[in-house]
């Protein structure tokens, strides 16, 4: 079923929604490892775990984040590497990284079946993360893995259509999104629409014709409830798995050839139909939110 | 309630879902005028009508489109101008324009209460439109109107997050989307998610913190059924009106100050949080869909 020389066509995908216990590094590693084993035994080639799934999320400050951080060759990533190799699967999982300068990073590790490891550091920091983590300087990557061309975004990264588009343009067939999405306080009023994390995943899948696989978390932590917005979206914008309440494993079989076909109908193409010369114009016209746009009179 | 010198804060919005009869210019103008009057009497300051609402959509070819086209100072736009002036409202409506070179355009007219008129010509053409219309060369505009700072996109334009982001960056508080969205053939399988036109409107509203007001059409035409995806979305990503089946008028009261506040929570801002230097990198890394991305090893 391979297309070209290396990239697979049919991929078993799993997104694990976990409920880490804040600061329980050993217990959280066990929970993550168990989820990886369960998913692999169920046939998953690609397994996505939540953001910061070894440490928990709600650090009081940078010092506390460092207390629960580990280097990229630390015990969590090392265990995931062994599991990926053992099961011939690709693992994408979030952890609290201590970088070579001793600074905390909100990172995702991508462990390929060949034991290679890539670290991505979150570039769009949400709320108090700005006081805790150093933001990444490298754009979200696209990796050619044993489970296909995988783009990575961490939670609030995926809020930005520029990020998801950039990953699709760089060749991602599937975008894996480790996530810890705090539920709004107070809760939003009842609405006919699904929650925004699901809407944004569906929209990114639709406009880029990619799979989107997001793994959110569950379990209350220091007063935070979570959106529990784990979801798998297909390139037609179908919601093919999730969301789920509590701990759970979302699964889907993905035909990545669908994501490599960017054609809509008989004459359209979601990437080449872009009028980039006009978007440059729009950017040049951009004003600060409080300034007055100039009235245009086209006719 | 005005903010600054000219821009209103509270705007009565209406989106009319109409069912034009193909080629019945006189009848369709009457239907459009009646919808404008009804909306204005119900308190609307801004009235959005569908794409190509005077001619219908399913032209056999360019010659037939020209048969039902009219210049930008033709009877439809002239009538809308009178109605806008009479009711002190802003009208956004789609029509088949014959330009000064005699070419057909898929255009939207924006008639302000002060009798000014702006024409926008659709820049992203869907399917057979490519064989019929000449695409616009000017980016979708943002207009400072009596009903606020209004961005314009026509149907498939709004599929592109670059378009909606560009309008928000250029200062739009509300994006008006005249639409004729053919329903998929065969129908998509049942899905837990709302239809994609609604998902994309909600996503654009959420990530840009703008109102999105789309007016789709109804009524079978030459074998085409329509998505009937008229909707009003608020800057929190709430679906506050629509969709509706058949002919109908969606209404909402919009507080445009909400769209001028781009802040999320305590520390985030949907426009200034963008890491544009990284998106430029992603664009530079962009490959054709069939090429192999280079494996990146960040660590």
Describe the structure in brief:
The structure is a homodimer of 299-residue chains. With 299 residues, chain A is α/β, with parallel strands linked by helices.
Tell me what the structure shows.
The structure is a homodimer of 299-residue chains. With 299 residues, chain A is α/β, with parallel strands linked by helices. Chain A is 25% helix and 23% strand. The first copy, chain A, has eight helices and 14 strands. Chain A has a six-stranded mixed sheet. Chain A has a six-stranded mixed sheet with strand order 6-7-8-9-10-11, covered by helices on one side. In chain A, strand 4 and strand 5 form a beta hairpin. The longest helix of chain A has 17 residues. Chain A is globular. Chain A starts with 9 loop residues before the first strand and ends in a 15-residue tail after the last helix. The C terminus of chain A is likely disordered. At the A-B interface, strand 5, strand 6, helix 5, helix 6 and helix 8 of A face strand 5, strand 6, helix 5, helix 6 and helix 8 of B.
């Amino acid at each position: 079923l391979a297309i070209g020389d290396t990239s697979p066509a049919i991929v078993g995908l799993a997104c694990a929604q976990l409920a880490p216990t804040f600061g329980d590094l050993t217990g959280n590693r066990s929970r993550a490892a168990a989820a990886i084993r369960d998913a692999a035994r169920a046939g998953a080639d690609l397994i996505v775990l939540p953001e910061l799934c070894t440490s928990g999320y709600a650090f009081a400050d940078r010092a506390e984040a460092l207390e629960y951080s580990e280097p990229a060759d630390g015990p969590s990533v090392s265990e995931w590497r062994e599991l990926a190799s053992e099961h011939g699967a690709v693992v994408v999982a979030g952890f609290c990284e201590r970088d070579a300068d001793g600074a905390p990073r909100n990172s995702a590790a991508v462990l390929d079946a060949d034991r290679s490891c890539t670290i991505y550091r979150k570039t769009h920091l949400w709320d108090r993360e700005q006081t805790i983590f150093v933001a990444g300087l490298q754009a979200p990557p696209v990796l050619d893995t044993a489970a296909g061309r995988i783009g990575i975004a961490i939670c609030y990264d995926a809020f930005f259509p520029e990020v998801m588009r950039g990953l699709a343009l760089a060749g991602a067939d599937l975008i894996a999104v480790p996530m810890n999405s705090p539920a709004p306080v107070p809760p939003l009023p009842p609405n006919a629409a699904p929650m925004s994390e699901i809407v944004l995943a569906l929209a990114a899948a639709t406009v880029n014709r990619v799979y989107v696989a997001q793994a959110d978390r569950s379990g209350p932590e220091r007063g935070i409830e979570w959106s529990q917005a784990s979801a798998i979206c297909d390139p037609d914008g179908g919601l093919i798995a999730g969301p789920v309440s509590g701990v759970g494993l979302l699964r889907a079989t993905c035909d990545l050839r669908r994501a490599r076909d960017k054609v809509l109908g008989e004459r359209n193409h979601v990437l080449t139909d872009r009028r980039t010369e006009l978007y440059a114009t729009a950017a040049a016209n951009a004003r600060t939110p409080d300034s007055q746009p100039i009235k245009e009179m086209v006719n």
